[in-house]
Design a protein that fits this description.
single chain, Aspartate Aminotransferase, domain 1, Aspartate Aminotransferase, domain 2, 2 domains, 4-stranded mixed β-sheet, 14 helices, globular, binds pyridoxal-5'-phosphate
Length: 459
């Protein structure tokens, strides 16, 4: 049903996209010039090749970012609902973090020794996320990678269970797809020389029976998942699903790892803490240092003892876990300021209240335009999907994707000063987002829907 409607809209979306591409080029001559200059030294003209994948005719260059806004090279102000794809979920350059960095900048950046603030950072992590023991790393990718290594080391098992459509960073073991019922390497990977399908199995999210079928084999070191899939569109867990995973993993001696890198948006402390579920490991990354590279993984006291025993029993030498700059002085200062002064209960209250306002406003707009699309919200994170109700698994989420529609909506909004997350339709609220920012998005979104749903123009 929604496919037919979406296909009708495709003609308008394709026309709109063409107009918006022209408009983008007219509005952004300075970004286009910077792209030409950067191409002389950077692959695709950008420091990280992902920055080339936004769907803009040339990359959008940023001059400065503050709070919920940033300014581009052409002097245009944007309301940012992408927020660095969660890295800046607590706002750009939050004042307490900027202050802590200024102070730390005169006291040293990195020594590979623990800074005197370490005990306070540990306390802040436990106070916020609940788990008693922690290790710091540089990215959420690293956190997941290292947790998998620990899980194999302490269980003596090799296998990993994940969900179809998962993304946990560029962790080789998790870069899988399900094709004809088999778990295989993602076709898009570059330079892949191992088959993650040997040790990794992916099943459908929200399918407890499939999870139990696998775990009952007794050879899974861990099950790694987000509390809701957020990287293939959004797939929320059915009531009782994550509690069911907790119960099954305990029954079959498999460790449960919850990757809260994105669901940290749920509320202060993350999804699991708010739901009263205790995973074996929790991974938090992206915004915990206010946008500086830092991530952490937490674990129970029982696991801490098993991890220490595994390390002590291993021959001396490289553990394969850790990187040189992890836990450096500068990021410790930033984590402490973020967790104690920025990611506060009142900041979350504001974020969740505005996110609820946005959710209702978006639903109203869809209703007014008679569009069979849905909005899913996990706390301060919202997703627009081109299907009538939230998908149950990644297959349903993929079926609802529509590249032309998505591309046209993104560019229409961007050309009017509103940024959504690329690759899907994610909107994130930060403590600095205001009611005016929400109204701006809703007004422009309504104009976009009007443009998309008017009688088809000839191509
Ligand atoms: C759920 C989840 N975990 C981990 C990561 C990896 O984060 P990073 O790229 O900062 O390593 C991502 C990135 O999007 C993510 O969405």
């Amino acid at each position: 049903m929604h496919t037919t409607r979406n296909d009708h809209l495709s003609i308008n979306a394709a026309n709109l996209l063409e107009t918006e591409c022209q408009r983008y080029l007219q509005l952004h001559p300075a970004s286009a010039q910077l792209a030409r200059q950067s191409s002389q030294h950077f692959l695709y003209g950008v420091p990280l090749h992902w920055m080339h994948d936004w769907g803009t005719p040339t990359p959008l260059f940023v001059r400065q970012a503050h709070g919920a806004h940033f300014n581009c090279a052409d002097g245009i102000d944007y309301t940012d609902f992408c927020l660095g794809d969660t890295g800046a979920m607590f706002g750009h350059s939050p004042e307490p973090v900027a202050r802590a960095l200024e102070q730390q900048a005169r006291r040293g950046f990195t020594t590979m020794l623990p800074d005197v603030i370490s005990p306070d950072v540990g306390t802040a992590l436990t106070d916020q996320f609940g788990l008693p023991y922690w290790q710091l790393v540089t990215t959420a990718t690293d956190a997941n990678r290292f947790v998998l290594r620990w899980a194999r080391a302490i269980t003596g098992r090799q296998k990993l269970l994940v969900f179809d459509g998962c993304y946990h960073g560029t962790v080789d073991d998790t870069m899988v797809d399900v094709v004809d019922g088999h778990t295989v390497s993602r076709a898009s990977l570059l330079g892949q020389n191992t088959d993650p399908g040997v040790h990794t199995v992916a099943v459908d999210f929200n399918d407890l029976a499939a999870v139990e079928r696998e775990l009952a084999k007794g050879d899974y070191a861990c099950l790694l998942t987000e509390p809701a899939l957020t990287n293939c569109g959004m797939v929320p867990a059915l009531p009782g699903f994550i509690a069911g995973l907790r119960e099954l993993t305990q029954r079959y001696g498999t460790l449960l790892v919850l990757d809260e890198t994105h669901t940290i948006s749920s509320g202060r402390g993350g999804w699991a803490r708010n739901a009263g579920i205790e995973p074996d490991f929790v991974v938090v990354g992206k915004p915990i240092a206010g946008g500086l590279p830092a991530a952490a993984y937490g674990f129970s006291a029982a696991l801490a003892a098993r991890m220490q025993a595994a390390k002590d029993a291993a021959p001396p030498g490289h553990s394969g876990i850790g990187t040189t700059l992890s836990g450096n002085m500068l990021t410790l200062a930033a984590i402490h300021a973020t967790l104690t002064e920025v990611a506060t209960a009142s900041a979350y209250t504001h974020m969740l209240e505005l996110a609820a306002t946005l959710e209702h406003g978006l639903r109203d707009a869809l209703h007014r335009h008679d569009l069979p699309w849905c909005i899913t919200r996990i706390g301060a994170r919202l997703e627009l999907q081109f299907c009538a109700s939230a998908p149950l698994n990644a297959r349903q989420a993929r079926a609802a994707q529509h590249d032309t529609l998505e591309h046209a909506i993104h560019l229409f909004l961007l050309n009017r000063g509103v940024l959504l997350t690329p690759f899907h339709n994610m909107m994130l609220i930060c403590p600095a987002t205001s009611h005016q920012d929400i109204s701006k998005l809703l007004n422009i979104f309504a104009d976009c829907l009007t443009a998309l749903t008017q009688s088809p123009r000839k191509a």
